Amino acid sequence: MISKFVITGPECSGKSTLAEALAKTYNCYLVKEFARDFLNQLDRSYKYDDLLNIAKNQYANEKKMEKKSEKILFCDTSIHTIKIWSHDKFNKCHPKIYDIKENYKHYFLCYPDIPWEYDPLRENPKDRNRIFNIYLEELKNKPFTIIKGSINTRIENAQKIINQYLQIKKKN
User: Fold this and answer.
1) Structure pTM?
2) What count of other Cβ atoms lies within 10 Å of the Cβ of residue 36?
3) Phi, psi at residue 72, to the nearest 5°?
4) Which candidate, 24, 41, 11, places its Cα nearest to that of 119?
5) Burial (0-12, 13-18, 19+ Cβ within 10 Å), 108
6) What is the phi-psi region of residue 62: left when phi exceeds 0, alpha when psi lies from -120 to 50, beta otherwise?
7) For residues 112 and 4, what is the distance between their CA atoms, to the nearest angstrom?
8) DSSP letters of 28-70?
9) pLDDT of res. 172
10) Most buried pick, 12, 35, 58, 102, via CB within 10 A?
């Protein structure tokens, strides 16, 4: 069984940069954020029902990459992100999104201590800390580590956790 890790957190908190760096460091696959490509191709504003489509495709992409992976897989977002997004934007979440189960070894929660960068898909430039606290609540019963600081510090701190998991797996 592979070790699957997710990089998560509020918008513009360094998730994709960290996910790409870790996948490169460990020479493994990365499940990219489906929502970004989907939303970039939409010729309208997204709607509540689009989030279920995004969740299903994100999950399907994860399952596809799990089959290709040998030891380790990184995911640049997850279903809980879509739940948080849905509740924050629409004050509700489709029940079928709750049916999708996550199975990560560890969550890396990126702290929004890096400067905000404009992106037409980003919606929350002023309340990243509020959203970060929603993530904290969502992850309170799951194995997670808050990742902050420079990109090098983030990579080093994530590697310490990942290497612990890989050592445990080697002993079994």
Assistant:
1) 0.93
2) 15
3) -145, 145
4) 11
5) buried
6) alpha
7) 23
8) -EEE--HHHHHHHH-SS---HHHHHHHHHHHHHHHHHHHHH-S
9) 46
10) 58
pLDDT per position as a tens digit, 27-57: 999 999 999 999 999 999 999 999 999 999 9
Confidence of residue 168 (pLDDT cuts 50, 70, 90): low
Residue 112 tokens read as 């929004």
Name the 3-class secondary structure at 169.
helix
Both structure tokens of 154: 């983030």
DSSP 12: T
Secondary-structure percent of the chain, ordered helix, strand, coil, rounded to 5: 50, 15, 35
